[in-house]
Design brief:
31% strand; Rossmann fold; single chain; two-stranded antiparallel ribbon; alpha/beta; seven-stranded mixed sheet; 242 residues
């Protein structure tokens, strides 16, 4: 078990558990391994609200074509391949150089966006996911790709994490909250107030089509693109400079 220290606005320190591949357990979480589970660490994929999911494929980069596992259940929906391909092409056309980027993936789920960024050369990805079963899937996927040294998984609440000031900002931030739980607005406020986004960074939100959101009126952000993919809306902002 690795412990990651985040430094707060008043120089106070808060310690959070980081669940990495090979860990034996998550603090305060000791489920029984399901009979059919082949993972070497605790997994709650047998819980009624979450079950073994499908698969996703890395689109480009060093791990192009590699297949990773996903989880399914309420709130879990890995970004579709065509959405990821379009999104990453758009970011690269706007000048994103993955080899110079630290990536933050909030409500990470299966980590489809973070792992795509790592495959394309991102220097580091921090994935925040409060569900321990999903975190176990993330850990296994990181091990499958061999990117444990560039991947940190925080098993914690996104709002609690983003309410604090990071030690350094991120160049790319993905927000993909579960639909219908009103988590996007407070998460966005925290990111802006606590300076999680680098001054030249990109913020990407994947939200439900029906969410009432004026993308043009978010303080400190400028809309790059706002696109609908069926019932999903993907918004790309960049940090705004006066």
């Amino acid at each position: 078990m690795i412990w990651q220290v985040w430094r707060g606005a008043a120089d106070s320190k808060a310690t959070y558990p980081v669940f990495s591949a090979g860990d034996a357990e998550v603090p305060n979480f000791r489920p029984k391994l399901p009979r059919a589970c082949a993972t070497p660490f605790p997994c709650v994929c047998s819980r009624p609200i979450q079950r073994a999911g499908g698969h996703m494929r890395i689109i480009a980069g060093a791990h192009k074509g590699r297949v990773l596992k996903t989880v399914s259940g309420p709130g879990y929906r890995p970004a579709m391949g065509r959405v990821r391909e379009s999104l990453f092409s758009r970011l690269e056309s706007r000048g994103v150089v993955w080899g110079e980027c630290r990536v933050l993936d909030l409500f990470a789920g299966s980590g489809s966006l973070a792992f795509e960024a790592l495959s394309r050369g991102a220097t580091e990805a921090v994935l925040v996911e409060k569900d321990s079963g999903a975190a176990a899937c993330l850990s296994k996927n990181a091990a499958t790709l061999g990117v444990e040294d560039r991947c940190r998984i925080l098993v914690d609440d996104v709002l609690k994490i983003t309410a604090r000031t990071p030690s350094s900002p991120f160049q790319v931030i993905f927000i993909d909250p579960p639909y219908g739980e009103s988590l996007f607005a407070p998460t966005l406020r925290n990111i802006i107030r606590r300076n999680w986004l680098d001054e030249d960074g990109f913020l990407i939100a994947e939200v439900e089509k029906t969410l009432r959101l004026n993308a043009e009126k978010q303080p400190g952000l400028e809309v790059v693109n706002d696109t609908l993919y069926g019932q999903t809306r993907v918004i790309v902002w960049t940090a705004y400079h006066d």
